[in-house]
Design goal:
The protein has 6 helices and 13 strands. The protein is of the alpha+beta class. It has one domain. Helix 2 runs parallel beside helix 5 and helix 4 packs antiparallel against helix 5. The longest helix is centred in the N-terminal third of the chain and has 23 residues.
């Protein structure tokens, strides 16, 4: 019984810093620094940064930004500040200046890879990580992306959130066993990682980004099959 009490007390002690930091964060300042409003899940604030300015094709098929060009950054309260994670979409000539800017600012580059093969223009996906004051981190990300043509204003041609797709979304939901969400001309079905992660003494209560997601987009009439990708 004594051991159980000690473990319970330790759990409460570890939880206090996370809750305390979450209450102290001025999220309005973070929104202002990025020029965007976050989607909030628990303590996690996630900002979408889609590359709606790019006209990308794969084998003649135009790729919708919501399908495979959806950059994002997310913030979660952690000990002594907040943790930043993100995945930003870049063209080949944007990689070096953005990477240089981020590294000089103290933000880590944890991966650089492709999601789309044979795309025109070539696109790259840069995973980033940081820790500290969230408004400052947001400003540094915005500063680095000034090296690109990434739009921060809402797209005037954005599709309706509930637009009807030329896909049997009910059948997709039944087959995948997950409720899809229509956005930007595609349907997206999330598969969340169930393992519990622990970092900086703060167990993440909601997903920041490490989730498997199947996304479907209707292709050209000549190629009626669906293209799926995961990110």
């Amino acid at each position: 019984m004594r051991k159980i009490a000690l473990i319970s007390l330790l759990g409460m002690t570890l939880a206090v810093p996370c809750s305390s930091v979450a209450a102290e964060v001025d999220w309005t300042a973070v929104d202002k620094a990025l020029g965007k409003t976050a989607a909030v899940q628990g303590d996690v604030h996630r900002y979408g940064i889609p590359r709606s300015d790019l006209k990308v094709k794969v084998d003649g098929v135009t790729i919708k930004p919501a399908l495979a060009l959806r950059g994002w950054v997310a913030f979660e309260p952690a000990k002594d500040g907040t943790m930043l994670m993100g995945d930003i979409v870049l063209t080949e000539n944007e990689v070096t200046p953005v990477m240089t800017n981020l590294l000089q600012s103290g933000i880590e580059i944890t991966a650089l890879h492709n999601h789309l093969m044979r795309s025109t223009p070539a696109t790259f996906y840069m995973h980033i990580r940081g820790h500290g004051d969230p408004a400052k981190l947001a400003g540094l990300v915005r500063q680095a992306l000034a090296e690109t043509k990434t739009p921060f204003e809402p797209s005037s041609t954005a599709s309706s959130q509930a637009a009807k797709l030329d896909l049997d979304t009910d059948q997709l939901d039944q087959t995948l066993g997950a409720q899809g969400k229509i956005n930007g001309g595609v349907t997206s079905s999330p598969f969340l990682e169930k393992r519990r992660l622990l970092r900086m003494e703060c167990p993440p209560p909601q997903p920041r980004g490490p989730a498997q997601r199947s996304i479907f987009n209707r292709l050209l009439t000549a190629r009626p099959q669906s293209l799926a990708t995961s990110s």
